Amino acid sequence: MDKFSISVFLWFKLIVGLRKRGEGTRESGGFLLCKPGKRKVVKVVFYDQFDETVSATGIIQFKGAAAFFEYLANENLEVLADIHSHPTTNTQQSDSDKRHPMIRLKGHIAIIAPNYAKDLFIFPKNCSVYKFLGNFDWKKFEVAMSPIHLNLF
Predict the structure, then answer these.
(1) 76 — alpha (psi -120 to 50), left (phi > 0) or beta?
(2) Is CATH 3.40.140.10 the classification given to domain 4-152?
(3) Where are the domains of the chain?
């Protein structure tokens, strides 16, 4: 998988946003966005910005796709990855995660953060990273940190 990066500032903004939205009791999630064809995250948006009921049942059920894709077109951005939180330290994909990718395109990257993102510090190495291969098949990847960027590969 090609490497991509996110600044430390955006990573912690992402984690704090997940923590705030999940309130320690439910899953929350967001999209990591980049300029078309680029591999650096330039913006983070959260599912509930496009669907206020996304976590109402305690799990992710995103119904805001139309508004989200309109936003991407207007901002000239594309999805590099998505992230959502799980209730425990287990960041393995659930059957639901495998069967319902947020973006159903080969090559899409899904990240899972532990403990509803409520831990004080969550680093990329504490998360699991998966690449969608199509036909509900996924490949798990390792995560590395550098001093300036958090590289996922």
Answers:
(1) left
(2) yes
(3) 4-152
Q: Which DSSP helix (H) or strand (E) runs through 100?
A: none
C-beta atoms surrounding 138 within 10 Å? 16
Give the number of residues written for the chain.
153
The predicted-structure confidence for 100-129, as pLDDT tens digits, reads as follows 888 889 989 999 999 999 998 898 889 999
Cross-strand partners of 7: 149
pLDDT at residue 63 greater than cutoff 90: no
- List Cβ neighbours of 61 (8 Å cut-off, separation of 6 or more): 53, 54
Q: In this structure, what token pair is assigned to residue 73?
A: 């077109």
Give the max Cα distance, the chain: 38
Partners of 81 in beta bridges = 32, 109
Cα 106–chain centre separation: 16
What does R_g of the chain's alpha carbons equal in angstroms?
A: 14
